[in-house]
Amino acid sequence: MATTLITHIGELFTADTEGPTTIEDAALVIEGAHVAWVGPATEAPAADEMVDAGGRAVIPGFVDSHSHLVFAGDRAQEFAARMTGTPYAAGGIRTTVAATRAATDEQLTSHVARLVAEMRRQGTTTVEIKSGYGLTVHDEARSLAVARQFTEETTFLGAHVVPEGDPGEYVDLVTGPMLDAAKEHARWIDVFCERGAFDVDQARAILGAGAAAGLRGRLHANQLTYGGGVRLAAELGLVAVDHCTYLADEDVDALRDSGTIATLLPGVEFSTKQPYPDARRLLDAGVRVALASDCNPGSCFTSSLPLCIALAVREMGMTPTEALLAATYGGAAALDRDDVGVLAPGKRADLALLDAPSHVHLAYRPGVPLVLGTWVGGRPV
Ligand code: NIG
Ligand code: FE
Predict the structure, then answer these.
(1) Is the ipTM here above 0.90?
(2) Is the CB of 299 under 6 A from ligand 1?
């Protein structure tokens, strides 16, 4: 298999929790789709090809464990109104549902392709993609089929909001025919557990039906209000629960005891003017934390993990190192993946070259496109 040596790396951020997290004056060898070697540049083995990083930093590609990329239309006016005081509400989702139902498969696919390319340019190499803007049997299944063309990490979110009609009948649809049609295209099932969407009992029933169909659970919880969603995730032993903005002490204790990862989505708070989640409180309590974009047309239309890292550092009490770990290793853990998010021998060669000498610059230089190149499975993209 062909080998590539990336050398003269000013700082290699491995995100390796079992070895050194950073190595200065480093090199990395790629063999096929995987990392074969990391270490000091002076000790690097020879390879077929060489890339000179010019003293710049190399980091694992970001693992964005939460996005809603399958949609049509936008809600720029809703965003503009929010900035002058209109609060965010779950009901705005229905606007995107109407536009998504009206779009062709080709339109949805090309839109996702554009957003995935945008993510790649910003260093994201693994992305989870949810359905949730179709909300009919047909539109949820086709949303997932579109998402599946771009990632294995697809999530059925039929329980995003009740689109129309009786809520009880809609839950029956989601847990019955919609789940049947969705399950072949999805790895995960998710519920928006929130005022204006689904309550804890409904979420429990939907996640239970998903588990019986072979899908693993995740949850949107405690985004806009305090409530029982985070505790439900902990009780069910879900791998991750996402948002975690409004947390009581008992929620924090439950997360720590269950090991469920709190995935924080600071782009949402930026775009909704809600308070940022308190990452420091979670980390100090021993809760595992991930950062993700939540890229969607309503609450947060950014695909930028560098922006999320900058916000987490500036507004949420994370150090630059903690924030980058949460967007790489943490995102991978939130998808129960151990093959990505870390640069160590045997892991996938998914990485980004920064036009900066250290990872700290991701937060230090907010808004600056620092990603010079992205490799996925050992190949530049
Ligand atoms: O994760 N919270 C629920 N779903 C999305 C927002 C969807 C929308 O507003 O269109 C979120 O924030
Ligand atoms: Fe979301």
Answers:
(1) yes
(2) yes
